[in-house]
Specification:
mainly alpha; 479 residues; 16 helices
């Protein structure tokens, strides 16, 4: 009995501890459940965040609750249906997942130098295309363009005379008429005199040419070059055969010459009418051109226009004066050397002087050839010396002194512009190429200086601008 009582007592103690163990186990499970609930709530909160901007994205339940509790839903019977099956936001990857780097932007993958080269390249392509289209348009209407450019050059030469007559008291229309008529009459008389001299000395020139050819033949036979008479006769025969074989081409060239003559007369008439209107309404035409320019660029263009016109006027007047001096000096020299048609040759020298570099060479070579076939080798050498001496004086004394700094164009730019103008517009293009380059140089220089001064003026205005006034403080803000 004693053993049973002792065992019962031990069992009673164990049974007394069981409720405490169960109570502790329940409390632990409760705490574990609370922790699981907290973690689940935190995971749901993280899942509802935007992974890019970290802005909370409302869930479908939140949308539904907001739609149900909004005043609009209470006051209106027609409510929009709420989609209860919206897809949940994709949760971010776990912390142990490997980081995946995003692909760079293709623009950032291209080197900076290549991007700059590409940007410059397509702009150059656009500029080259624009120049090509402009060249094609000018080639299509080359007669009109050359006539207008010639009118500009003649206007630059005659406009100071119109201004002088206006200062003397003549009305603008009368001053324009007197100047234009006088100029055209003088040019017409010069052209008539050249044609008259050529026609009057044509017979004498042909006889002198035949005599000169015979003299050249004898000189070639007696020269140290060992030229035989058979070789000279063969050269003459080849020339006559070439002329006979190309009779059709020569005839077609003559017909084309008639067409060219008609075009030249048309261009002269266009140039005359354009000169009249430019002399009379030049300022109004310039104002109309300014109205075509965008308003932001109008002040710069308005300032560059007078600069360009002064450069063009200085170039034309200086070139005319230099050409006149060359023609007079070379004409006097070949006249005293006995070269026939000295006056027509002097006029040709004057006209070709408007083509820089090339014109002087061509006109001088023409005078030397005429002296060679008419008066022999010695006279031709003397004419060559006269031409070279006058051209040296022109290049080193006349042009720097007369033109001065009004027209500052590098000799390389002169050569390239004359070549390009000759390819595009022939002789007329070669004549207008250099003044066009000179005017462009003046305009670009002025616009660059104008933009720099505008930038400095704007910077000074910002530096000296007063500080902005403080906003008034209200009584509420002070409290």
């Amino acid at each position: 009995m004693g053993r049973l009582s002792g065992g019962d007592k031990g069992n009673g103690g164990i049974m007394a501890k069981v409720p405490n163990l169960l109570e502790r186990l329940g409390a632990g499970l409760t705490r574990m459940g609370e922790r699981l609930d907290e973690r689940r709530a935190a995971a749901e909160a993280d899942a509802e965040l935007d992974p890019v901007s970290a802005v909370p994205v409302p869930s479908a339940a939140a949308h539904t609750a907001a739609a149900r509790t909004s005043p609009a839903a209470d006051s209106s019977d027609e409510t929009e249906p709420v989609d209860d099956h919206l897809p949940e936001h994709v949760p971010p990857p776990p912390a142990y997942a490997p980081a995946v780097s995003a692909r760079p932007d293709p623009v950032d993958a291209v080197p900076w130098s290549m991007r700059v080269a590409a940007a410059v390249g397509w702009r150059l392509l656009v500029l080259a295309g624009s120049i090509y289209v402009l060249t094609q348009i000018i080639s299509a209407v080359s007669l009109v363009v050359l006539a207008f450019v010639a009118a500009l050059l003649i206007t630059a030469l005659l406009q100071p005379t119109v201004a002088r007559l206006k200062r003397m008291g003549l009305p603008r229309g009368l001053a324009t008429a007197v100047t234009a008529i006088s100029g055209f009459v003088i040019m017409g008389l010069v052209g008539w005199f050249v044609v008259w001299q050529v026609m009057d000395n044509l017979d004498d020139l042909s006889s002198k040419v035949r005599a000169g050819i015979e003299e050249l033949k004898h000189w070639a036979l007696n020269s140290p070059f060992h030229v035989t008479e058979d070789q000279i006769n063969q050269i003459a025969k080849n020339l006559s055969d070439t002329i006979g074989a190309n009779t059709n081409e020569i005839t077609s060239a003559g017909l084309q010459g008639v067409t060219v003559l008609v075009e030249v007369l048309t261009g002269i008439l266009l140039a005359m009418f354009s000169t009249l209107f430019l002399l009379y309404d030049g300022p109004k035409i310039w104002q109309w051109v300014l109205n075509l320019v965008p308003e932001a660029a109008r002040p710069g263009v308005a300032g560059a226009g007078p600069k360009a016109w002064r450069t063009l006027t200085a170039y034309v007047r200086g070139t005319v004066l230099v050409a006149l001096i060359d023609a007079v000096c070379i004409g006097i020299g070949i006249y005293f050397l006995g070269v026939p048609m000295a006056v027509p040759l002097a006029v040709f020298i004057f006209l070709f002087a408007f083509i820089p570099l090339v014109g002087a060479v061509v006109s001088g070579a023409l005078a030397v050839v005429v002296a060679l076939v008419t008066d022999g080798v010695f006279n031709a050498l003397m004419v060559l010396l006269v031409v070279l001496a006058v051209q040296q004086i022109e290049g080193h004394v006349l042009q720097p002194f007369i033109l001065g700094r009004a027209v500052r164009v590098h000799p390389l730019a002169v050569v390239l512009s004359v070549a390009a103008g000759g390819l595009v517009g022939g002789i007329g293009g070669a004549v207008v190429a250099v003044p066009l380059v000179a005017v462009t140089n003046t305009v670009v220089g002025y616009l660059r200086k104008y933009s720099r001064e505008n930038a400095l003026r704007s910077a000074r205005a910002v530096e000296h601008a007063p500080p902005p006034a403080a906003a008034p403080v209200s009584a509420g803000d002070r409290e």
